[in-house]
Fold this protein.
Amino acid sequence: MIWQGVISQYKKYLPVSDKTPVITLQEGNTPLLYSSFLSREVGSGFSVYLKFEGANPTGSFKDRGMTLAVSKAVEEGSKGVICASTGNTSASAAAYSAKAGIKCVVLIPKGAIAKGKLTQALFHGAKVIAVDGNFDDCFEIVKKITENYPITMVNSINPNRIEGQKTGAFEICDYLKSAPCFHFIPVGNAGNITAYWKGYNEYFRAGEITRLPHMLGFQAAGAAPIVKGEKVDNPETIATAIRIGNPASWQSAVKAQEESKGVIESVTDQEIIEAYKLIPSHDGIFVEPASAASVAGLLKLIRRGFFKDVENGNIVCVLTGHGLKDPDIALEEAQAPVVVGPDLDKIVELIF
Ligand code: F0G
């Protein structure tokens, strides 16, 4: 059967009916790639898989939640949606609103989102407002606007976003025919760790899986309020997507960590960059810096000897967004190309 998107695939687990107008870009069904490199790094008995969410239509996992949030907004007669964003939510909201033919407004921290994401929001026709402040400032304003004006919030405190995003867990279980033992995930506003945990639990209750994974969430060290146990006023990290000091789903992220007997820890920008460079060179997929936080977390736990005394099994790292959204950081990290004239001999000399 041809893939029709996550609503069509998983409707029996989602708050939709035959009357729901399905606004889809055929998101989901993203690759779950076995990583021989990372599996070797962890050690025998473990298999590491990478869930490449950058393969979604707008290049990030946000599309899973946005298809549902926008479909429900249209069903409820909403004429427009609004969100605060570090970039990916705004790109996704803009694309799904364009498809639905409704208005989209996005508030972004000025100068602090990747160019590719800004371009997406603008080109899909969203009203883009750059706020001289950070994500948390944008989010507070969006909350106030949606409390007082007729426009639908599509940040992840909209429960439809979480509902849609939980389908990532379903796909992993459908593919592996069980839940992984360990699920590594970057944490920013904490919606995605909440959604995956919900998805695994629903599949468990439905009898689709017989065990639950440990959830291992990773924040960037300069933007790690959950790890620190307090808000961070001026979050800083090169991983702009997770540059958040006061996550909206803080409590449910902690709940996922506690219930699953997992961890929420931080990784430094240096550790993020290390993983950011290793993934494309060993596994052939290019992710954005924030996405690399899951693999950075895995490498950190490997070094600590974490896997020496735990049961063997499957490990999944979610890679949340595509690297092409943020090429500036990659170019800074990559070796510049060698420049030569159209000189065959010289080029042959360089190659061999
Ligand atoms: N990875 C990427 C690429 C993201 O864009 C985000 C969040 C996260 C991880 C963290 O996910 O917030 O559910 O914990 N981006 C949001 C945005 C905040 O506005 O695009 P989370």
Notes: Residues 60, 62, 85-89, 156, 186-192, 241-242, 288, 290-291, 320-321 surround F0G (CB under 6 Å).
